[in-house]
Amino acid sequence: MANRTVKDAHSVKGTNPQYLVEKITRTRIYECRYWKEECFALTAALIVDKAMELKYVGGVFGGNIKPVPFLCLLLKMLQIQPEKDIVVEFIKNEDFKYVRALGAIYMRLTGTSIDCYKYLEPLYYDYRKLKRIDRNGAFHIIHMDEFIDELLREERACDIILPRIQKRNVLEETNVLEPRISAIEEDVDEMESEDEDELIKEAKKLIPQEVKPKRSPSPHRRRRSPPRKENRENRQRSPGRRRSRSRDRTDRADKRHRSPGRRHKEDSHKRSGGGGGSSSKRSRQESDHHDRDRDRHRSSRQTSDKDRSRHRDKDKSSRDNREHRSHRDEKRGGRGEKSGKSSVTDQEIKDANEMRAKLGLAPLKL
């Protein structure tokens, strides 16, 4: 009577819930001392106290195939068949890790495929350590996430054959379950993003800041920029610029004077026809004659420019002398004025005659 399943228990996987444990293992549990002393007349409320006293997980061990208390309590839960809410509370318990492990293996044996993935996959984030005993009686350290992965992937756990469940990808294709996002992938993505940010910061530190070259002002801007007052004053003061302008004008005049000679030379060459000894000699003589005239004209131009500059200087000096003399004559009186006027006029006539002689003109009469 003590080993029978409760009357109102529902069949699991089409059979008695206790039959999920193999017969040999089940008989070993019935004969062990822990089952007879500690598991007798347990209820769903009292089984929690016994689960809190567990120290390790496992199946059977030793030469005489002795079951562990964890396996005895699992068979007792299959016998009394607690409600689903109680099992869910076992799984959600965060204070006692062996209570959570007991509820997880019971859900794996009795729950549907959807319930197994729904309630067991969140336990992948539990990394607490568990002690497990093997067939030889040696203890090993595992983690809660390893134990849950073994329940969902392996065929046996704690020396019990686990019932088959549907693959997760099949349930995802039928839209029964949503795709699962692994915590490891999230951590990897975060680490990669942090590494990228660090690399970008280091690269910015290593790359020198580019120095922008100073823009040189364009020639158009230089032309448009208004001249300063200093430049205007310098231009007014410096006579060298005037001289250079006068030289440019003379050069332009020479070029204009040269051009008709060249045209005349070309015309004479065309008239001659380019053939015959006498015509070529005549053209050469004419060209020589034009060259001589051009050189004479150029030399006369240069001499005339020099004479003009000298004449200007003399005019300035003569004007100064006149003013000085006129001022002196005003002081002296009437006679002085007459003599001063006559001397000024004579001096002007002499200067004009010298200039006209240089230019090849007839002198003025006194």
UniProtKB/TrEMBL annotation:
GO biological process: mRNA splicing, via spliceosome
Record's compositionally biased regions (Basic residues): 214-226
Region (Disordered): 203-366
Compositional bias ranges of the Basic and acidic residues kind: 203-213, 227-236, 283-296, 303-340, 347-357
Function: Required for pre-mRNA splicing.
Family stated for the protein in its record: Belongs to the PRP38 family.
Name of the featured protein: Pre-mRNA-splicing factor 38
Species assigned in the record: Elysia chlorotica (Eastern emerald elysia)
